[in-house]
Design goal:
Blueprint: H1 19-23, E1 39-45, E2 51-57, H2 59-62, E3 67-71, E4 93-94, E5 100-106, H3 109-118, E6 120-125, E7 142-143, E8 147-148, E9 151-153, H4 156-162, E10 165-173, E11 185-191, E12 195-200, H5 205-216, E13 223-226, H6 242-253, E14 259-262, H7 265-271, E15 278-286, E16 292-304, H8 315-319, E17 325-335, H9 348-366, H10 370-376, H11 394-405, E18 418-419, E19 422-434, E20 442-448, E21 451-455, H12 465-477, E22 484-487, H13 504-523, E23 531-536, E24 549-561, E25 567-577, H14 584-603, E26 609-610, E27 615-616, E28 634-639, H15 663-675, H16 687-690
Parallel strand pairs: 1-14, 12-13, 16-17, 21-22, 25-28
Antiparallel strand pairs: 1-5, 2-4, 2-6, 3-5, 7-8, 9-17, 10-15, 11-12, 11-14, 15-16, 18-19, 19-24, 20-21, 20-23, 24-25, 26-27
Helix pairs in contact: 9-15, 12-13, 14-15
């Protein structure tokens, strides 16, 4: 157990410290940083899904006034490309539709775009494969985050054969895209004296620096990545993508001239990652009283020939409920499609939709209240590892959420309630997400000009890091927050882990607390000018000591129009076990945002593959639907507020992703209660009720 902080600022509701800057338009996002005499890049993207570039005619572009460079695979500088996603313009091979096959740099974005559109590319096209076939499936060595591909304990088949009640169904989640408000953007400058300076829309300044250093074979100290303000990421900005590489490639070819590149919304659908389409077969076996005897999940997922990505979709089934017989597997197919990647709560988001839908089906089959079924199967220890939980209050979340929502007034019969032509249903689902604390974090605390300066290269992607890290630093130093100046978002600052995995506050905050405590021990309450301490994050709890997770319970009310199948969600409540909340205002924003994103997954988002052309047919926010204000009605996020000091001195758990993981299942379960129709494939559209 770590030594806890005495909360003064921690737990206090404060407005965002960067809010006025953002509201006034003074916060510089990547494209906004002032650079002298910039150039602008526009890419030429492949119009086939598989084949080779036979010839590129760039003569019209090169003759256009204002064009200073045209890059193709024939003249682009060679880079180190163990990772094929970063092998931009390194060969003539086309691996997916929308791949960068040329780039134009010009004095204005308008000239760059017009010139790029004049480039003529001739292809030798080959047949492509963009849909998963059984014969193409294989078993990856591991899945995302290094988890085991398969697990098997007990005898699931025997449990299924002998159980009083079983569920054996398939569930499908659609291909979805993160779609942050700020597009992926790179502003890169190369000089022989300083190397690269890159203003980047990034969730990890040091992580991007490491990749850029490797790809361009430049010492890390000659690469600086600056990202103080980021307009959302949802995982897609956790690692660089091809667009950043081509912009830096152009900058290096034009020393001293900054090169700006911002993806279009359509390009973001093919160049910046997405959650792949995933199909899961879920098997549950139970006694007549609802006690689980077996849990099985078999996952089939698309990946890319460019780079393997296997989402850890079955992980929630390994940890959520007690059962003696368990089996999980992951199989993937490498297709001629863009590279899938992290998207908010990878693994847990699709995994919990399938598992929590199946649990609801089991409750219905047993004739047991879905809240009570979950409570009945609460594990004493982590089912996957056998370790004790650092803390686990899922049942408290279920009970508190049920009371808040008015769950116990619900008639359990399907199609039992209506409001005029609207069928009304209510559903529940549990949420979970691991509570991570990452290594490789260093914080610096300095006293200068009568103020405390705290430095760490953390990233604020809209989550509130500018605010909560100030609050943590103030409590750790024992001073008012007004006396602390924070610097983040720059690889010139001490190293910080990625703003991902809901691990940022726990990781960066622990480093800050460590440095602040060492500063106080060394210099006391009256430090001198330029006194400073630099401290690394201490070791986490001993490996194998605890199983740390956040949990939650989400309750949805759904209305489905009996004649049209139109679906609405007038109420969506969540109660979460997320440890000590640092700032209620920013925490609620994160939890509510996750729930809205889960609603979006449940009802709207569907990246439609045009199999003939091998690309997304709806690659923009006109045709790829997400919720708007009118879709979001009575939305509440509450929390238990029980600190977990086994995890970090603040007692906090991550909150960025826990809000999304149970929402889609809660909505689907409510839709079943309303209509009697069980929808097992997302999104839940009106045709699913009219079939």
């Amino acid at each position: 157990m770590t030594e806890q902080l005495t909360p003064v600022e921690i737990g206090r509701d404060r407005a965002r410290f960067d809010g006025a800057l953002k509201a006034g338009g003074a916060a510089p996002f990547a494209y906004d940083h002032p650079v002298e005499d910039p150039l602008y890049l526009w890419t030429v993207d492949s119009t086939i899904a598989k084949g080779r570039v036979a010839a590129v005619d760039a003569s019209a572009a090169e003759a256009t006034e204002g064009v200073v460079l045209v890059l193709t695979h024939d003249n682009a500088a060679r880079v180190s490309h163990d990772d094929l996603e970063y092998a931009v313009l390194q060969d003539p091979v086309v691996r997916f539709r929308g791949q960068v096959v040329a780039a134009v740099v010009a004095t204005t974005p308008e000239v760059a775009r017009a010139a790029a559109e004049s480039v003529v590319v001739r292809y030798d096209q080959e047949p492509h494969s963009v849909t998963v076939r059984a014969e193409d499936l294989y078993s990856p060595e591991t899945v995302n985050a290094g988890f085991a591909t398969d697990t098997d304990s007990g005898d699931l088949d025997a449990a299924m054969a002998s159980a009083a009640v079983t569920v054996d169904e398939s569930y499908v989640t659609a291909r979805t895209h993160p779609s942050p408000m700020e597009p992926h953007t790179t502003v890169a400058t190369w000089t022989d004296a300083d190397g690269f300076v890159v203003f980047e829309s990034s969730q990890s300044a040091h992580g991007f620096r490491r990749v850029f250093s490797d790809v361009f074979e430049v010492p890390a100290e000659r690469v600086r990545v600056i990202a103080p303000f980021v307009g959302g990421g949802f995982g897609s900005k956790g690692m660089p993508h091809a667009g950043a590489i081509v912009a830096m490639m152009a900058a290096r070819a034009l020393p001293g001239r900054p090169v700006k590149f911002a993806h279009t919304r359509r390009q973001m659908f093919r160049l910046t990652g997405y959650r792949p389409r995933i199909e899961q077969r879920v098997r549950l076996a139970a006694d007549a009283d609802g006690t689980l005897l077996g849990v099985g999940v078999d996952v089939v997922q698309e990946s890319s020939v460019v780079k393997e990505y296997a989402e850890q979709t079955a992980m929630p089934a390994r940890t959520m409920y007690a059962a003696p017989n368990r089996r999980t597997s992951h199989r993937i197919a490498a297709l001629d499609v863009p590279v899938p990647s992290w998207m908010r709560a990878p693994g847990e988001t699709p995994g919990m939709f399938a598992l929590e839908s199946a649990i609801d089906e089991l409750a219905h089959g047993c004739g047991i209240d879905p809240v009570e079924l979950r409570a009945l199967n609460e594990p004493a220890v982590d089912p996957d590892t056998g370790l004790p939980h650092s803390s686990r209050h899922l049942v408290r979340c279920l009970r508190a959420g049920a009371d808040l929502f008015g769950w116990y007034h619900r008639d359990p019969r399907v199609r039992s309630r209506r409001q005029g032509p609207w069928l009304v249903g209510q559903g529940v689902a549990a949420s979970t997400y691991p509570a991570y604390r990452q290594p490789n974090n260093t914080a610096l605390v300095r006293f200068a000009h009568g103020r405390y300066q705290v430095e760490i290269a953390a990233a604020d992607i809209g989550t509130g890091a500018w605010t909560v890290l100030n609050q943590i630093a103030a409590d750790a130093l024992g001073v008012p927050v007004e006396e602390v100046d924070l610097a983040i978002g720059d690889s010139a600052l001490p190293v910080a882990s990625v703003a991902g995995g809901s691990s940022g506050t726990a990781s960066w905050g622990t480093a800050i607390v460590t440095a602040a405590r060492q500063f106080r021990e060394k210099f006391g309450a009256d430090p001198g000018e330029d006194d400073e301490v630099r401290a690394d994050i201490p070791a986490h709890t001993a490996p194998g000591e605890f199983a740390p997770h956040a949990h939650g319970a989400q309750f949805a009310e759904v209305h489905v129009h009996e004649d049209t199948g139109e679906i609405r969600v007038p109420r969506l409540y969540g109660v979460f076990d997320a440890g000590q909340v640092i700032n209620p205002r920013t925490a609620r924003s994160q939890l509510v945002g996750g729930m809205v994103m889960g609603m979006s997954m449940a009802l709207h988002e569907d990246s439609v593959m045009d199999t003939a052309l091998g690309h997304t047919a709806n690659p923009d926010l006109a045709d790829y639907h997400i919720p708007v204000n009118a879709d979001v009605c009575d939305l509440r996020a509450e929390w238990l507020g029980v600190p977990d000091y086994r995890l970090n001195p603040m007692g906090s758990k991550g909150i960025g992703e826990i809000g999304i993981t149970g929402t889609a299942a809660a909505i689907a379960n409510a839709a079943f209660h309303a209509t009697g129709v069980r929808v097992r494939e997302l999104p839940i559209t009106l045709d699913k009720f009219l079939r």
